[in-house]
Amino acid sequence: MTLPLVISLPHCASVLPPEIAPTLALDPLRCLVEADLGTAEVFAGLPVLACLKAQWSRLAVDLNRDAHDRGPQGVIALVSFGGRPVFLPGQEPSPQEVERRLAAYYHPYHQGLAQALTTPGLKAFLDCHAMDPVGPPQAPDAGRARAQVVLGNRGGDTCSMEMLERLGGELVARGFEVAYNTPYSGGFITRHHGPGLKARGIMAAQVELNKALYLDLQRQELIAGRLEDVRRRVEAALRSFAAGL
């Protein structure tokens, strides 16, 4: 049975294009920290209408930012979520390089996503991420412990709280601790597509999984048994949720 869902995984990749990797000041372990490790393994194999996966690390271009955002953590991040400079001195991308990355990596992803969201039979769109178990310095909840799953609807802009809590209830029934809109209520992708989808009667929400569920945080390595357990429980929750849409 195909679930009437479209899933987006804008930060699932950890690989950098070979021309970009030498410009980074972050070591390989810190580059892994910046990725949403495990999201592809949990979500990409689900029987959904479409699943959009990032090909490259968010350090090349951040697909969950507005294309015009040139801030320190904009579409090309200059500062990591740990507060470290992303690029070596003098290696920050020029305006021309920013435009090249947008054309090569950003716009194709968003064009594919926009097309997927017109798929007949679509009932819900989930933009899926992974988060550190404790808020990093640049986060809105710096230093505070986080729930196992955070669901966001931009305060009601992208779906009703009733709908969001229905999804949350299915996750709780599978043993997850769930929070709503804290610390994240939805990034650019959810904000950009969600209100229009809601107007069409289609739910949109952001999903954040706590990396401590399945990741060795010191080594940034996936723990296979725990990852499979999370994947199985998430799939069961989404199947039950989709059956009621």
Description of the structure:
This protein has 245 residues and is α/β, with parallel strands linked by helices. The protein has one domain: Aminopeptidase, CATH 3.40.630. It has helices spanning 28-34, 39-43, 95-116, 161-173, 188-199, 224-243; strands spanning 3-9, 48-53, 124-131, 149-152, 178-180, 203-210, 215-216, 221-222. The strands form 2 sheets. A 6-stranded mixed β-sheet has the order 2-1-3-6-4-5, sandwiched between helices. The longest helix is centred in the middle third of the chain and has 22 residues, at 95-116. It is globular, with a radius of gyration of 17 Å.
**What is the overall number of helices?**
6
- Write down the overall mean pLDDT: 97
Q: How many whole angstroms does the radius of gyration measure?
A: 17 Å
Portion of residues in beta strands equals 15-25%
Shape: globular
Please provide the count of β strands: 8
Q: From the 3D structure, determine the CATH topology.
A: Aminopeptidase
| N/C terminus separation | 14 Å
Name the helix and strand elements from N-terminus to C-terminus, one letter apiece: EHHEHEEHEHEEEH
Major β-sheet profile: 6 strands, mixed
- In CATH terms, what is the architecture? 3-Layer(aba) Sandwich
Strand order of the largest sheet: 2-1-3-6-4-5
Tally of domains: 1
Task: Please state the structural category.
Answer: alpha/beta
Unreliably modeled segments: none
For this structure, what is the CATH homologous superfamily?
Answer: Zn-dependent exopeptidases
Helix content: 25-40%
CATH class: Alpha Beta
Task: Report a brief summary of the structure.
32% of the residues lie in helices and 16% in strands.
